[in-house]
Amino acid sequence: MLKRSLSASLLLAIFIAACKTQTPALKTTASVREGQGVYQFVEEDPLRKPFFSDRTGELGRNGMVASAHPAASAVGVAILKAGGNAVDAAVAVHFALAVVYPVAGNLGGGGFMVYRDKSGKAYTLDYREKAPGRASANMYLDSAGNVIPGLSISGHLASGVPGAVDGMVEIHKRFGKLSWAQVIQPAIDLANNGYALTERDATGLNRVKANLLKINPGKTYFFKTTSPADTTTWHTGDKLVQTDLAKTLQRIQQQGRAGFYEGETARLLAQEMQRGGGMITEEDLRNYHSVWRDPIQAQYKEYNIITMPPTSSGGVALVQLMRLNEPYPLRKWGWNSDSTVQVMIEAERRVYADRAKFLGDPDFVKMPLDQLMSKAYLQNRFADFSFARATDSKVVSGGAIPGYESMETTHFSIVDKDMNAVSSTTTLNGGYGSRVVVGGAGFLMNNEMDDFSVKPGVPNMFGLIGNKANAIAPNKRMLSSMTPTILEKDGKLFMVVGTPGGSTIITSVYQTILNVIEHGMTMQQSVNALKFHHQWLPDNTIFENGAFTEPIVQYLQSRGYQLEKLTNTLGRMDCVLVRPDGTLEGASDPRADNTARGY
Ligand code: GLY
């Protein structure tokens, strides 16, 4: 359909690109079957590999949990083995991450969940934070109208009203099988008994210690180390015991939603806000409710993409990206070949410009979602694309539609024995959020207010530009990039995918899906594969070391692309693939402590 309606010039560009000799990148075998491991690395340079590591996927027949922390994945599998379904496991993993992964797991944050039940019905739950009732558009500006540096990022004023606990209550009430008490108990045990820190856990806590002490004067929380030889520095294997957090979890266990949004926890949270000049009140907490939204469902070739609608931009952007590359023979061109990369970068440039112009909280902003994802609109978005030269981001703004005026997060993917599947991404926004620990309640607050456009055209902590659609307003949700996604093939569950990474979430999910369905990688290979990212502004492409060969770098630079090789990494994917024989392949990211556990 699309091909027939493509403009002649666009068809010609695609034809020329398809015929031209490719700069050799990586050769793949001629027959590509997704997720079957037919992808073969045969590049001449033995020192360069397209993968971050050689980790292989975890296989299971009865259930799979992939999350950011081994202790949380173990909790998820224990719940499945106890007869729980994917939703029970998801709630248990969420609360476990709030204990063992304070960098992003949370009670004081928010997130999104995509759920596909065994019959194929799909649901999405939005438990994104909201601006407090007293918030205002200019709350982070000085009297001259300039952004006050750091105010939306650090400290009490940076927090939105948390949504995660309400989200867990809602999803469990509707789809859980085990009791509420049972799914929270593992988190309470981890908080009371402590858990052994990984090297990464210890390094993270040591890194933020000075800042936590500054923002939380007099609180000893997170600072009582268990090494008798050195009580001020965390070491691998030290135990982190969190008794205040355990008490908060017990209140949630006993009282459900009221254990967080009313009573003792709400009082402690509001008191903490008052102490530090924050805005959240007990009334804000009482008024918070998560929202069931209609999932975005879109066809890409033989796959059905089920993903998150706004308040996240992730789903819309993912569908736009996939549909922009659909007319091009990426499979034939190969993984990260010159033309493949060029098409993907140009798609990303345009999609992030649309994100900035159009997207925001659906309860506040009217958005042309169907048009943005329509093939006709997207075809027009690529009308000025040429393989000869990079498009200049300065001349790309959000597309014209007639009549129309965040790095630390965490993701987990779960599939149970009946093929119920959960894809959930949750966040405090920055690492350890606003760094505010709620006194007496033992949990960290988010700094999600920075995901609003605090001033039109001024980039947020991820360099993302926003506009009126994402301006601050009382009780409004801030736009997100989180992209929890599920794919079906032939009406059956095929893939569960997602990652943290702020603005890079969307492009990491995009590449991880394409790596499997176009380039024939296994789920784990796809997660391991090195990645790149472009987000319209700034107009450069960042890439993991090794993602592009030297000839590809030269090809792109000769056409005007600004490239930046990263010293760090992109994405922390946690995914599950259903192989044709029904085996589950869990793939967790080797870039951090992520762990897949199946049985
Ligand atoms: N806080 C990162 C995001 O929601 O995109």
Plain-language structure description:
By secondary structure, this protein is α+β, with helices and mostly antiparallel strands. Helices cover 33% and strands 14% of the residues. It has 19 helices and 19 strands. The chain has helices spanning 2-5, 8-19, 70-81, 86-100, 164-175, 180-193, 199-215, 243-255, 258-261, 263-276, 282-287, 314-325, 330-333, 338-358, 369-372, 375-381, 505-517, 523-528, 550-558; strands spanning 58-60, 64-67, 110-116, 122-127, 195-196, 239-240, 291-293, 296-300, 303-307, 409-415, 421-427, 485-489, 492-497, 532-533, 541-543, 563-565, 574-578, 584-588, 595-598. Strands 1-18-17-13-12-9-8 form a 7-stranded antiparallel beta sheet. Strand 12 (485-489) and strand 13 form a beta hairpin. Helix 4 (86-100) runs parallel beside helix 6 (180-193), helix 6 (180-193) runs antiparallel to helix 8 (243-255) and helix 12 crosses helix 17 (505-517). The longest helix is centred in the middle third of the chain and has 21 residues, at 338-358. The radius of gyration is 23 Å and the shape is globular. The two termini are 43 Å apart. The model is unreliable at 1-6 and 19-37 (pLDDT under 50). The chain binds glycine. Glycine is lined by residues 406, 409, 427, 429, 451, 480-482, 502.
